[in-house]
Design a protein that fits this description.
- The chain has 257 residues and is α/β, with parallel strands linked by helices.
- It folds into 2 domains: 8-95 and 175-257, P-loop containing nucleotide triphosphate hydrolases (Rossmann fold); 96-171, no CATH class.
- The chain has helices spanning 51-58, 81-87, 104-116, 122-128, 130-143, 158-170, 188-204, 216-222, 240-245, 247-254, and strands at 11-22, 25-36, 40-44, 66-71, 74-75, 89-91, 176-180, 208-212, 225-230, 233-238.
- It has a 6-stranded mixed β-sheet with strand order 6-7-8-3-9-10, sandwiched between helices.
- The chain is globular, with a radius of gyration of 19 Å.
- The two termini are 31 Å apart.
- Bound molecules: adenosine-5'-diphosphate and magnesium ion (MG).
């Protein structure tokens, strides 16, 4: 599939020799990669490869044993998860939570307000602040969920709910968005909507995306660059053709050692 590549060669994230040991297990083993501005990169690999641990290191939920992570040239290792969000890395879970009984619009509003750190008259400002209203409708439009604005989140389909989570990440105004299996458990049609929405976001914002995903069809459609992890290490990196032609990747996915 043809991809619209609009990103520059400027690097947003530079990960160098990132390593995380748990007792007896090296979950992430000297991982190095760079993400260019505006790109979509997928991290794939079998269960236990180290994908979630890598995400936890990038978001500050885990402290690495060694290594460096620079966001736009600034070291973020050692920062708390909250500081990392403010530095510009948004993650699709653990950072923001969805309030199931509020509407889609109210959820996005709460996220926008918490980002703007409005302390005064919180509930009043929910209704009246024009800059908040503008940001909320912009985000709903960007993600393509404006028609769902008044719906309660608890009544949404799995796919729509995933789009709301992406909207909440956007409310943090991130430079880099980490999405962990955004299409997990979805039908092919739902997954396709998420893919289209992420592609639309790539084209209409200057965000960079790092996505884990086990559905290889989604990965090959969406990502310009694919990182394959196995036993904590990066075993291959490249475009869809390079990855599907890699004998090492095939061996890992066929389960042979
Ligand atoms: N908190 C932890 N304590 C000990 N071992 C862990 C912990 N988290 C992950 N691991 C181990 O690290 C390895 C990588 O796990 P994980 O990052 O969850 O992989 P993936 O997300 O690719 O399935 C696995 O062997 C897993 O058992
Ligand atoms: Mg995982």
């Amino acid at each position: 599939m043809k991809k619209l590549v609009k990103h520059s060669t400027e690097s947003v994230l530079k990960v160098s020799n990132l390593t995380k040991d748990f007792s007896g297990i090296r979950a992430v083993d000297r991982v190095s990669f760079e993400l260019s501005s505006g790109s979509i990169t997928a991290v794939i690999g079998p269960n236990g490869a180290g994908k979630t641990t890598l995400y936890n290191l990038l978001s500050g939920n885990l402290v690495p044993t060694s290594g460096s992570v620079k966001l736009e040239g600034k070291e973020i290792i050692g920062l708390t998860p909250d500081r990392i969000v403010r530095a510009g890395i948004g993650r699709s879970f653990q950072i923001t939570s969805v309030f199931p009984d509020l509407s889609v619009e109210q959820n996005v509003r709460v996220a926008v307000i918490s980002r703007q750190r409005k302390q005064f008259d919180f509930w009043h400002s929910l209704k009246s602040d024009r800059s908040v209203n503008q940001a909320v409708s912009e985000i709903l439009n960007l993600v393509g969920i404006e028609t769902l604005a008044k719906n309660s989140v608890s009544l949404l389909s799995h796919g729509d709910r995933s789009l709301v989570e992406i909207a909440l990440v956007l409310a943090l105004k991130p430079r880099l968005i980490l999405l962990d299996e955004p299409t997990a458990g979805m039908s092919r049609e739902e997954a396709q909507r998420i893919v289209q929405s992420i592609e639309h976001l790539q084209q209409s914002t200057d965000c960079t995306f790092l996505i884990t995903e086990h559905d290889l069809e989604v990965v090959f459609n969406l990502a310009e660059s694919i990182i394959v992890m196995h036993q904590g290490k990066i075993i291959a990196q490249g475009n869809d053709r390079e990855i599907s032609n890699s004998s090492e990747v095939r061996r890992v996915y066929l389960g042979a050692s």
